[in-house]
Amino acid sequence: MDIIKVIQDKSKAGEEYFKLLKERQGKENVEVIKIVEDIIEKVKKDGDRALIEYTNNFDKVLLKNIEVTKEEIKEAYSKVEDEFIEALKTAKENIKEYHSKQVQDSYILTKDNGIVMGRTVRGLDRVGIYVPGGTAAYPSSVLMNAVPAKVAGVNEIVMTTPPSFDGTINPNILVAADLAGVDKIYKIGGAQAVAALAFGTETIDKVDKIVGPGNIFVAMAKKSVYGFVDIDMIAGPSEILVISDETGNPKFIAADLMSQAEHDVLASSIFVTTSRELADKVIKEIKLQVEDLSRKEIILKSLKDYGAVILVEDLNRAIEIGNVLAPEHLEIITRNPFEYLNDIKNAGSIFLGSYSPEPLGDYMAGPNHVLPTSGTARFSSPLSVDDFVKKSSYLYYSEKALKNVNSKVIKIAETEGLTAHANSIKVRFN
Amino acid sequence: MDIIKVIQDKSKAGEEYFKLLKERQGKENVEVIKIVEDIIEKVKKDGDRALIEYTNNFDKVLLKNIEVTKEEIKEAYSKVEDEFIEALKTAKENIKEYHSKQVQDSYILTKDNGIVMGRTVRGLDRVGIYVPGGTAAYPSSVLMNAVPAKVAGVNEIVMTTPPSFDGTINPNILVAADLAGVDKIYKIGGAQAVAALAFGTETIDKVDKIVGPGNIFVAMAKKSVYGFVDIDMIAGPSEILVISDETGNPKFIAADLMSQAEHDVLASSIFVTTSRELADKVIKEIKLQVEDLSRKEIILKSLKDYGAVILVEDLNRAIEIGNVLAPEHLEIITRNPFEYLNDIKNAGSIFLGSYSPEPLGDYMAGPNHVLPTSGTARFSSPLSVDDFVKKSSYLYYSEKALKNVNSKVIKIAETEGLTAHANSIKVRFN
């Protein structure tokens, strides 16, 4: 049994593989939707009492305080390694620096006869970040969600995450949240946390937007409250596409493919290369390296089910495949990787050269690791400051300015059959 | 029977009215969802054949050509008044000028040791605009959707709209589309048009994003295909909030409230003022003016059901109400309207002064008329160039640069339990 499919480009097998990737998406679960709707209704009705009850039922904790106290945060710092804190601080500064370039200014346009118009840009008032519990509690995700919100000028950032059996929160998460400038942290998880953020309770003020990953209950709850509040996109299975010519280092490429594969059995790691020889070496390296990795089982299943090595004629075709698949992560490990930057139309995050592996971007460099998955990079973008602002247009015309265009406005209004629109111009000059 | 409710601020009636506004939202219709899903499946399976069949069934037209021909567009010009074309041209130039200020540039950040990173911004490849038929066929909406897409650098803009009984398209719509630079126009409406845009047929290439208003079938179809393609927000009932002190002109205010009310019986027109006297005059003016308006019935029903005059103590409280309701349109008709610009946190579009009525913005001035409705201005923004671009981040580290941070990346990866992530850094320095 092969560890990963090897596919000749433009073959029947290639077509089938592309089709398989498209169908990776999980189906919505009607039972889950029903459960989630009930939870939301109860939280809307009973507020904190419902939160305490659900946390008792699902997390097996009878909460004394819903909000994490200052003392608990202080204690978390004492439990966390200094090197980890230093690493998070460097990451935070890099993320802040990178995202600061995304701030959009309000603008103004002035024209003759006293016309003034433009657009104001403001941070959202209040944002809620959901952080999963257990093994999926990633401090890096806290930074990646909170720092852009902070840069955007969000007034208040709150976080919610399920408690452990003993009623505490993972100290790594608490430290990351504190460093990132999160204002309040709540010990609530699941659909009940999403409901509380969307509609508010006695303790938790409702927010304007909910971001962050979660299990199927959290995802369905976010979908359900969308419209009352904004949400980030609901992430599908993720993927990496590595493109290389014969100059690629097989050790590095094998390692990078596996770093994606370890996330999830639905994750997809794809290697597209012009070199059959390199392909063979990469497969050999995977077999070697996987033995020492703690998530070996997940990696092997993910590579077997959704991974592939695709052999192409030239790098232009490799880029073309990239544009069709629109991968979340795209590594270009070629002689002159920058040469392809203009040709890459669809990708969440692009990693150029041999020393820019995906984990560098996941944790440290500055670009966001919340990225459009499952081919949605065709129309979606990495999480950014843009996601935490709202805009308003504004318009001022003087009497003279309006008079100059009044017949044109009336003409369009009447053509559209909207006579009250036309009337609103007419009454001003009768 | 009063023509519109008059409510004292902070009264029980005020509370009830705010609650009523929140509940204006229409319920989703399960039957419609089922019908729409069937249509989508059939279009996916049968392509053009399904489109022809549905158009025959629903629009009572046996189409000879799905795509509008050059001759049909030429003919449309001959059917349209010159003054209308001139008005559209002025509107288009104003919209283009206003939206050009929204173009975001790609950026780059360079750091020591050869680090390069940044973000590229590109127009979407292909966008589809849905335009309703019948009395809701608004040429101004064609401009408001197509021009920002054009400014964003979208490669191809297509439009789809249901044909009339004789197989033609409203010439005003065709002319607007042609002026706006729409590349292709299809004579298909309803859920079948949305399905064709999302998944493609022999004649219609699939798009990356679908925008534009539509009836319940179109809205549900957009919701259903969301994820395969992007969509704009599904608009709820719309509203105007006019704020005035005693200096407001009652004629103007009455006319502006009715220009919103004529859209829809669910539309909401709200007048908030510090002056009881002005309130009375506005109501008198509504009664006078409404008699001459063609959509009188809709206006009266909308004002009665969802309109209100709210009497407040001072303008600060009026602005506060504005921020709570987060109206789609906000007119500030006061002595010094610009003074309040900083205090308005939540509004789609803001109209300042006595000569900037909503219809000026709907048709002519430049800002977009596609706006967040039903209080979503708390977290959503007017349609803009931002809605027609996608972004990718890119990252390059040299060997030396990666070496400098390698222990920190490994520390975070291992803390998160992702050993394959750590491995991808380690293999590069073993």
TrEMBL record, chains A, B:
The cofactor(s) it depends on are: Zn(2+)
State what protein this is by name: Histidinol dehydrogenase
PANTHER family tied to this protein: HISTIDINE BIOSYNTHESIS TRIFUNCTIONAL PROTEIN (PTHR21256:SF2), HISTIDINOL DEHYDROGENASE HDH (PTHR21256)
Q: Where is the active site?
A: 328-329
Listed pathway(s)? Amino-acid biosynthesis; L-histidine biosynthesis; L-histidine from 5-phospho-alpha-D-ribose 1-diphosphate: step 9/9
Q: Which NCBIfam families match?
A: hisD
Q: Which family does it belong to?
A: Belongs to the histidinol dehydrogenase family.
Q: Which reaction does it catalyse?
A: L-histidinol + 2 NAD(+) + H2O = L-histidine + 2 NADH + 3 H(+)
| A single cellular component GO annotation | cytosol
Gene transcribed to yield this protein: hisD
How is the cofactor bound, in the record's words?
Binds 1 zinc ion per subunit.
Family matches, as PROSITE patterns = HISOL_DEHYDROGENASE
Per the entry, what this protein does is: Catalyzes the sequential NAD-dependent oxidations of L-histidinol to L-histidinaldehyde and then to L-histidine.
Report TM segments. none
Name a GO molecular-function annotation: zinc ion binding
Q: Does the keyword NAD apply?
A: yes
Respond yes or no to whether keyword Metal-binding is given for this record: yes
Residues annotated to bind Zn(2+): 260, 263, 362, 421
Q: What is its EC number?
A: 1.1.1.23
Q: Which CDD domains match?
A: Histidinol_dh
